Automatic annotation (TrEMBL):
Annotated ranges, domain DUF1996: 43-305
Protein name as catalogued: DUF1996 domain-containing protein
UniProt KW keywords: Signal
InterPro entries in the cross-refs: DUF1996 (IPR018535)
Signal peptide extent: 1-17
Superkingdom, taxonomy of origin: Eukaryota
Amino acid sequence: MKTIGLVLVSFAALAQAVPQAGGFGSSTMLRFGCSQIVIDRIDPLVNPDQLPSPHMHQVVGGDMFNVTIPSADIGNMAKCTTCSYSDDFSNYWTANLYFKARNGSYKRVPQIPNRLLFGDQFTTKTTGGFVVYYVSDGKNMVTAFKPGFRMLTGDANQRAKIGSGKKSQSCFRCYNGPNFGGDNAAPCADAKLDTEELPKGQCQGIRSNVLYPTCWDGVNLDSPDHKSHVAYPSNGPATFTGFSTGGKCPSTHPVKIPQIMLEIVWDTRQFNNKAEWPADGSQPFVLSTGDKTGYGQHGDYVFGWKDNSLQKAMDSGAGCMGASCGGLKTQANAPAADCKVPVRYPENFDGWIDTLPGMTE
């Protein structure tokens, strides 16, 4: 298979990502692009009504995103979305990545879209943003999220490894070599290439993956920490096994839900001048939370699919793959790119800046 541009993830590689799922051929795997709807220092999940929130986020999805997002059915309230599936008015957001130069100044690392998505012309033309996955295990039916559902994975304050082994809910991969590495491996599936911490060496690009829990308590649409109502399978994610869709759900969280994964590619090529790196040679990248380790990578999610469109898609099995799924409406790039929300806390976050937004150093 010919490699085009920065990133290539093959269906064969993704099939390897779910060996425990009972056959990838019967799985549902939505894989679609969403461009940025805003970059702003607000967080309606963790810091509702707080303006500004402690750190900056990059956001994709529907135009209901605001300092607070109502718990009502936003899938039937929103008017536009930046995602290629035009019935997905959900919001997904993560921290930004910055380069810290030797002189102490910062510059935001741009995002580059995946270059080849099996004929998905939408994703290859997005500005910023990232790719969103919804995956079932191919054996057990999954229950789509309900209006008002929201969750958080990861911890913005984490700065060190917790426990032993590698955890597959968050990882980074350094792209290098000809054609930027020509990567075709499944997300978080290779313990040698995927790391929980930010790569230490120079990269042509850094792939970032965030995987959400796949089990739900079946009752609560949210919880005080935005995590307790969901869980990972009881047999994972203890090791790097790619998608954690096939494990058994714990008795406290018996309902199988789709695995959401966010895939971001940071274009680090302009930051490979060693003279601008720290004098001690340490890696110079830092998340907008002030985290230089990468352990604080996290992802927020507020459900907003229109009506029962997501449930229909997840029930389709092998009929729903990639950015084309029977019955799901799609849109062209132009109307998606036109979907924006106002910046609620205007500040300088691009160009060279002295401090990270919200940080003291």
